[in-house]
Design goal:
This protein is α/β, with parallel strands linked by helices. It has 2 domains: about 200 residues, nicotinate phosphoribosyltransferase; about 160 residues, Aldolase class I (TIM Barrel, Alpha-Beta Barrel). It is built from 15 helices and 18 strands. The strands form 4 sheets. It has a 7-stranded antiparallel β-sheet with strand order 13-12-1-5-3-17-18. Strand 14 and strand 15 form a beta hairpin. Helix 5 packs across helix 6, helix 9 packs across helix 10 and helix 10 packs parallel to helix 12. It is elongated.
Length: about 375
């Protein structure tokens, strides 16, 4: 047992994080016929969280690691591809006993990664060219902090706060100062000056300006105390009032004193709506990203022994998903069908489900996170947003 009540890589790979009823299913199918009949399972989301029009598919390489060495073939969308309700994002093919107990961890990997990446992309869409940083790892179990900040970065955040995510992304974590530094120092000016004197010069000189006094007053003091890159407003909700007006006042008072280049960053309980409404230079977004609604993917058997099957409410048979990336129009057909054409531009659509694993051997290499992020942002720019 681990110290922090988390599963090890080995326990996940061995199926020990599954739901217990899959062990019952495995015993039953092995008793019936050995569980050797080929099964085809598809993963898709028949609905998305309220107000979401799309999702970002993330977790492919984790899924391939889960299935490595098992007698299965996997077909999937490319990491970072946008998907829409009822589209298949992954197909698993093999003897059912090979992947029966891995449904639970597979869905967990895909649902959580995709949920965080999707929320981050939504916030980035509203922020536009303004900086968005993921600040939410204090709201989740530390064992998954690197995963959360990596998914947030891929989804569109320009940076993240968790230093453990550096190893996974190749990007340095972002952050300046906490309230505790100001409080420990005894007053704001002493804290700002200690930060400026002793912290690495590469760290932006962004002062926290809401610890004891009015944000406008502290922002002026900070700008007059050290050479500032920016100020951060992290005003608690009980004192916040009209945040847009506070930002406007701070901007005005800095500008009339010659500090036009000092940027204003806002953090603390932000979501998409607030990012859209507040006229700041950057945003630190925490809980709404780290605790983002998961994507409710489901895994459904659609073929057994070559025969199409389906539970109520689902469609049997292997399917292919097609996309016109110019128009972001989609189509779903049976696998092997003639490629459809986009109804908007008449171009032949691109198939999204491609073979990525053969007999437990991955056929694709891990893409750089930066490249996946660029793919997400390119699609985001092509997508009309509700």
């Amino acid at each position: 047992m681990t110290k922090f009540h988390t599963a090890t890589d080995e326990e996940i790979m061995d199926g020990k994080t599954t739901d217990s009823y899959f062990l019952n299913a495995l015993k039953a199918i092995e008793g019936m016929d050995g569980g050797e009949k080929e099964a085809v399972a598809e993963v898709g989301a028949y609905s998305l969280p309220s107000s979401y029009g799309y999702g970002v598919f993330l977790g492919l390489m984790d899924s391939l690691n889960l299935f490595k060495g098992k007698n299965v073939d996997v077909y999937a969308m490319e990491e970072g591809t946008f998907f829409f309700p009822k589209e298949v994002v992954m197909r698993v093919v093999g003897p059912y006993k090979e992947f029966c107990v891995f449904e639970t961890p597979l869905l967990g990997l895909l649902c959580h990664n995709s949920g965080i990446a999707t929320k981050a992309s939504r916030i980035k869409k509203f922020a536009g060219e303004k900086t968005v940083l993921s600040f939410g790892v204090r709201r989740i179990h530390p064992a998954i902090a690197p995963m959360v900040d990596r998914a947030a970065y891929i989804g569109g955040c320009d940076g993240f706060s968790c230093i453990a995510a550096e190893e996974h992304t190749g990007k340095k974590a972002s952050g300046t100062m906490p309230h505790s530094l100001i409080i420990y120092a005894g007053d704001q000016v002493k804290g700002w000056k200690a930060f400026d004197e002793f912290c690495d010069p590469s760290v932006p000189r962004t002062a926290l300006v809401d610890t004891y006094c009015d944000e406008k007053e502290e922002a002026i003091k900070a700008a007059q105390s050290i050479k500032l890159d920016g100020v951060r407003l992290d005003t608690p909700s009980s004192r916040r009032g009209d945040m847009a007006e506070i930002i406007r006042e701070v901007r005005w008072e800095l500008d009339i004193r010659g500090f036009e280049n000092v940027k204003i960053f806002v953090s603390g309980g932000l979501n998409e709506e607030e990012v859209r409404e507040l006229k700041a230079d950057g945003y630190g977004v925490g809980t709404s990203i780290s605790n983002a609604p998961v994507i409710n993917f489901a895994l459904d058997l659609v073929e057994i022994g070559g025969e199409a099957v389906a539970k109520r409410g689902k469609l049997g048979g292997k399917k292919q998903v097609w996309r016109c990336f110019d128009c972001m129009e989609s189509a779903i057909t049976l696998d092997g069908a003639k490629p459809p054409r986009c109804s908007s531009c008449s171009k032949q659509m691109t198939p999204l489900l491609k073979k990525v694993m053969d007999g437990g051997k991955p056929l694709v290499k891990k893409k750089e996170d930066e490249a996946i992020r660029e793919w997400v942002l390119n699609q985001l720019n092509s997508l009309s947003y509700p």
